[in-house]
Amino acid sequence: GVPVGTGMGLPAAVRDRVAAVHRGSALPERLRLYDGWAARYEQDVAALEYRAPHLAAASLSFAFPAPRAEARLLDVACGTGLVARELHRRGFRCLHGVDGSAGMLEQARSTGLYQELWLCVLGTEPLPAPAGHYDAVTVVGALGEGQVPSTVLPELLRVTKPGGFLCLTTRSNPSNLRYKAELEAALGQLERSGAWQKLLAQEVEYWERATTEEESTEGTGYISGVVYIYQKCPVPHLEEG
Predict the structure, then answer these.
(1) Which residue intervals define the domain Methyltransferase type in the entry (predicted)?
(2) CATH code given to domain 12-232
């Protein structure tokens, strides 16, 4: 069964570290917090039962045509490499990552899963990649209030190949609803303009454990989230054969 009121069952230190990075602090301060959190990040998100990396990688693999080993992927806001681990398990081998936190990148580098890693603060700097470079781009867990702004979507599209995939996630907890509405408006606008087409918007009830009662979905002790998969237009036609 699902533990009830779990936000309260989380270690206080974990709760405090998660709350700190989600609080409305300015970006430089938040990046410093991530630097300091990097060494403990994976054990903290394990305590949170954070399922986004697994769910996102599974959804992307489902949409992605085989073979995967040659496909170039960019993991944006890659953190310590949780998404790379899940993608690697599913046969993706050519992984590049960017993150705004040097401490997180150091952890990501130690996984040995990335061919390239760059320090890049999304929303203030362009991605360090040429146009149409990647078969897929993932942004898992970073599209949220006070984190990566929804204005980065065109930049994510720029580095994606025509016909390539974008896998994005956001949370549906109360304090992120305004951001989520903004994000969905921006996603829809790009779809109407013919920049990409939506393949999936999957609402997930048990995304991660809530850190406070107020954030939890109807007292479950969990917050919910969404996985979106888009395909950049024009989508190449399959060769008649």
Answers:
(1) 74-167
(2) 3.40.50.150
